[in-house]
Amino acid sequence: MNFLIVPGLNGSNEAHWQSRWEKTNSNFSRVEQSNWQLAHHDDWLANLDAAVQRSGPETILIAHSLGCLLVANWAAQTTKSIRGAFLVAPPDPHSPQFPNTAIGFDHLSKAPLPFPSMVVTSSNDPYASLEFAIHTATAWGSSWKNLGAYGHINVDSGFGDWPAGLALLNQLLSQCQQLELSANMV
C-alpha cells in the first residue's frame, strides 16, 4: 500500500502532521507542486494526477485543507482508481476566509467519491463551518469524524505527530479492506 500526501496551500512544513508521517514511513510520498504559495487549480490537478499515476492503484491519498478540494475535483474527472482518501479539514471555497491565492478552486465537486473516504473536521475551523463539513462529507459519501474544537487541524492548532489521526487512518484502511473482501466474495 502506498500513501500519497496531498498538502494544502503553502505545503506542509516540517512540524505539520503530514510531514511527520511522511518522514517516519517509507511508503509515504508527497505530491509536489511548482508553487505552494499560489495554487492554480489546473496545474495542481495535473500534478496530483501524475503523482497518482506513479503511485499506482494501491494508493491512499492523505489530504489536508485545499488538498481535499483537489482530491474531490480530481476524483470527479479521473479514470484512475485508488484505494481510498483521508481528507482532513476541507475548506469552504465560498467562505470569506478562503484565500485569494487559491485560483480556480471555486467549483467544488459534490459528486460521491468512487472510493472509500473519511472526512475529518473540527467544529471551529476558521475555513469551514460545521454545516459545510457535514454537507460535504455526506455529498462525497465519506464517513465523517468531528474532532471537536481544534481549529484547522494543523500546526497552529497544536497538531504535530497526531497519533489519533493515524488511528483514524487505520479505520479507513479497515474500511478499504472490508470493501475488498466483500467484492471478492461476490
UniProtKB/TrEMBL annotation:
Any GO molecular function: hydrolase activity
Pfam families reported in the protein's UniProt record: Ser_hydrolase
InterPro entries documented for this protein: AB_hydrolase_fold, RBBP9/YdeN
Keyword Hydrolase in annotation: yes
Keywords of the record: Hydrolase
Identification of the protein by name: Serine hydrolase family protein
Protein species of origin: Deefgea piscis
